[in-house]
Amino acid sequence: MQRQPKWNISDTNVANFGSKIEKDAHYQAGAKEQAWADPKTKVGIEPGLWVWRIEKFTVKPWPKENYGRFYSGDSYIVLHSYKKNKNTEALSHDIHFWLGLESSQDEVGTAAYKTVELDDFLGTSPVQHREVQDSESSLFLSYFKKFHVEEGGVDSGFKHNASHEFRHRLLKVKLIGHTVVIREVPKDYKSLNSGDVFVLDIGTTLYRLNGKNSQGVEKVKATEFCQATTSDRNGLAKVVVIDEGDRDMNKFWEALGSEGPIKSAAEDTGADISKIPKKLFRVSDASGTLKFTEEATDIIKKSHFDTKDVFVFDAGHEVFVWIGLQSTITEKKYSLQHAQEYIKKYNRPSFTPITRIMEGGENDVFTKCLDV
User: Fold this and answer.
1) What fold, for 272-371?
2) 164-267 fold
3) Mean pLDDT of 14-19
4) From the record, what ranges are coiled-coil (predicted)?
5) Can you tell me whether residue 208 is helix, strand or coil?
6) Cβ pair 132, 9 in contact under 8 A
7) How confident is the model at residue 80 (pLDDT cuts 50, 70, 90)?
8) Distance between CA 342 and CA 352 in Å, rounded?
9) What is the per-residue DSSP string for 131-176?
């Protein structure tokens, strides 16, 4: 079951678009934000990856050695800048604001607002993405060789645990796309499956359980994680490796505190999003009233999009808000609201990633969702 956030997800849409005056105001605010406005950061100047954490309404650079490590009690902004065409110096940008399920409403709101400031600082051409813990997009995960979410955060006063008392936890190590993702899951046998690797951390011992159908890269990353953890604890923790079905399974069950059948790898795949039909909706005020109408189902082509309007495109795994260059201020302003209302009305998961794309700034993820 999907864990529910402490904050109201309907309040996390990327901010609305308005007049040129409003955009200029955002630009001025963004230009004053030293987290990216300082030329030394090279933001907007060269390709790269930048991560910031929201701390007490401020934007703080996240240490590069921690890239890929996030805390459930925090909110972050991630910028990926790259060259679409190697023959030009022009940069394209993807901005993601990542929301931990335990993050405060203030942190969530600050992350969303600061994302808009960064967008305007970079010229309103970036693609914006809302990412929710446990439902990250494949594009977001692709930035990190290893993606790891831990409990805690800046508001909980998280510090490196120098004592010898450690919170017991169960971690799942899973390959998603080209990224190995490490997530904390409920410490119960029901969290296990044969397709992944699990690390049961009880402080002085780390039990690494290899599912019988787990992949080699998952085992390698689990090994690296265990080595790093024991190093952090000055060698006070030992690692015990167990293969599913081994005679040592009883040690694992005893440490876990519960025992039961382990699900097959297939049972852990979740909902099959490929069975969800793609849908395209038009947001238009051409009639004098702002209307939200369905344009196409299943087969969605680039020709369905019209530069004079805004479109909400449900690709199954992600909902895109496409902004036509000639769309009106009203259409732009309420497009994300319509996307959120669509998710609610059609019973789509509330944590579905929402991405805003300006016409001409379409990324590969969006393009690959279209039919030829």
Assistant:
1) Severin (3.40.20)
2) Severin (3.40.20)
3) 41
4) none
5) strand
6) yes
7) very high
8) 11
9) EETT---HHHHTT-SEEEEES--GGGT-----SS----EEEEEEEE
Three-class SS state of 229 = helix
Give the residue carrying structure tokens 């001409």.
360
Burial of 369 (0-12, 13-18, 19+ CB in 10 A): middle
DSSP string, 305-341: --TTSEEEEE-SS-EEEEE-TT--HHHHHHHHHHHHH
As a whole number of angstroms, the distance between CA 309 and CA 307 comes to 6
What is the chain's alpha carbon radius of gyration, rounded to the nearest angstrom?
22
pTM equals 0.69
* Interatomic CA distance for residues 129 and 146, integer angstroms: 20
% of the chain residues with pLDDT over 70: 86
Residue 26 has pLDDT above 80, yes or no: no
Running DSSP on this structure, what letter comes out for residue 191? G
Distant-in-sequence, close-in-space partners of 33: CB < 8 Å, separation ≥ 6: 59, 114, 117, 118, 121
Query: Edge-to-edge strand order for the sheet containing 279-284?
Result: 58-61, 48-55, 75-82, 92-99, 127-132, 354-358, 319-323, 310-314, 279-284, 291-297
Mean local confidence (pLDDT), 297-322? 93
Give a three-class secondary structure readout of 19-46. Answer: CHHHHHHHHHHHHHCHHHHCHHHCCCCC
User: Residue 166 — very low, low, confident or very high, per pLDDT cuts 50/70/90?
Assistant: confident
Positions of CATH 3.40.20.10 in the chain: 16-161, 164-267, 272-371
Mean pLDDT of the chain: 84
Question: Which fold does the domain 16-161 belong to in CATH?
Answer: Severin (3.40.20)
CA distance 312 to 309: 10
